[in-house]
Amino acid sequence: MKKSIVLKCVCILISTHMFKEVYTLNFFGLDSLTIDLPQGRVRGSFDLFSTQRMFLGIPYATVTDRFQVAGSPPTWNGTFTANQGNVMCNQYFSTLRQPIGQEDCLVLNIYTPPSRTNELYPVIVFNHGGGFYFGSNSKLIYNPQFLVRENVIVITVNYRLGAFGFLCLGIKDAPGNVGLKDQLAALKWIQNNIAYFGGDPKSVTIFGESAGAVSVHYFLLRNSTEGLFHRVIMDSGSILMPQDFEYNPIQSASTVATRLGYNTSDPNELLQIFKNSTASDIVRASYADQTNDAFSLYYFTPCVETAVADETEPLITEEPTQIIKRPGLNVPVIIGFNNREGIYWAQHYNYQTVEQVRTNFGSLIPNYLKFESDVNRTTFINDAVNVYFSNRTVIDGLIEYLSDSLVIYPSTFASEVLTKNSNRSVYNFYFDYDSFRNLNKFLTRLRFTPGACHGDELFYLFQPAVYAALPATPNDSAIIAAMTALWTSFAKTGIPSTSATTWTPSNQQLKFLEIGKEIQMIPLPNQERMEFWRQTYEKYGRN
């Protein structure tokens, strides 16, 4: 996914954030902002501008050992002041070319309506994206004031990233996927504690974008997660996303170890290297230049677990191409994508001719494809070049190819399987609204390219600090109102609808709610290109 927006514009955001914090008041008095949890007493604050109660930086688990499942949440005496809304897990700040974050980073930000009612509020739990490498639950980016004003509680989750969350060595001391297990620990904490904040543990919607959508898709397809959530929202991601699964984790770990000064592929030796290296050194060694290879960063992502610690249940035991076929939990799902997702990745390429693309196409092949011969591989490359580059500029061809191969086809395939495998309701969306509020696109070098980039839809659901002092245009306000009403009505009832919008669920034929200048139902967009990917997957997909 995107390099977390925190990594792109934190300097701009901090000044706005500091201004708001000066005016964050205990408006309703200490009693209404003080909550007694089993861990201890916490005190939140009231945001005067957005009229929401905030409980920021509450720890839901403790990192006791690197690469291991997190331990129990900490306890404390006295009162925990819950005002740290920008805790970050270890990652690379590319703008300053510096590691940032901390290892013990497993915290939640909880946002509630200003007052309690006799009825418990529905809960939305948001897992951020970032390719399992970047990102956080920062209030600077993911302030959910638009959602909270619709009378829901919103919780944003931190989880371990990079090697700290996804070092996968096939041994008990580094089984892999602990970053996903962090998210499960957060869901269990929410079940045990959200009622203290006025939230309903029996009405929890898990919502993920990009890598966050990959995470919630895994949870949806796992029967042991039943009861932790009751509805699912997947924005721009599914477990088939090629950049978010590692088929050769030992090789990836060995590559990073080489940058740390070691040459080995032995799992136990690798474990000692990663255990004994500083967090900053690991983060630096995991960074790579993305020029003409947008996926060079993705060394540590979910993997098949071949060994786990005693009394720990493995989370992923098969490849995504197998897991995606499971029926999973019978809960309603929203799943969709943006029209030009690939803008985010295409910005890293400087190819000028189609022949340059063809010559270097190997790095563009998604890992859910597997070729039995060089002839098959060459045939696919030629077919893809013909489909995407025959009547387009090189950059437009890259945008459309990357959109389809990385996000749109994986999400479409997931939608088709979800509609066939149970009688659940599946609601598809297609976001093509374009304005200066499309912040992810604005931060790329392709900022004036038409369309909605990967992650752009989020800023019609969340209020990043960079926009806090800027009034929304009437059109932007209308999209914000429509999306927040649809997402929160789904969180309340399992049916996304408003008086102005009827969102028809998909059946054997996928149906999409287009969210753009018009909000209307449409058939599957770009059906010819999706048919190309269906046929390609039937021929060459890992099965």
Automatic annotation (TrEMBL):
Gene3D superfamilies: alpha/beta hydrolase
Family stated for the protein in its record: Belongs to the type-B carboxylesterase/lipase family.
Enzyme category, top tier: hydrolase
SUPFAM superfamilies cross-referenced by the UniProt entry: alpha/beta-Hydrolases
Boundaries of every Carboxylesterase type B domain copy: 32-533
Catalytic activity: acetylcholine + H2O = choline + acetate + H(+)
Protein name as it appears in the record: Carboxylic ester hydrolase
Pfam families in the cross-refs: COesterase (PF00135)
Any GO MF annotation of the entry: acetylcholinesterase activity
Keywords: Disulfide bond, Glycoprotein, Hydrolase, Serine esterase
Active site: 210 (acyl-ester intermediate), 341 (charge relay system), 454 (charge relay system)
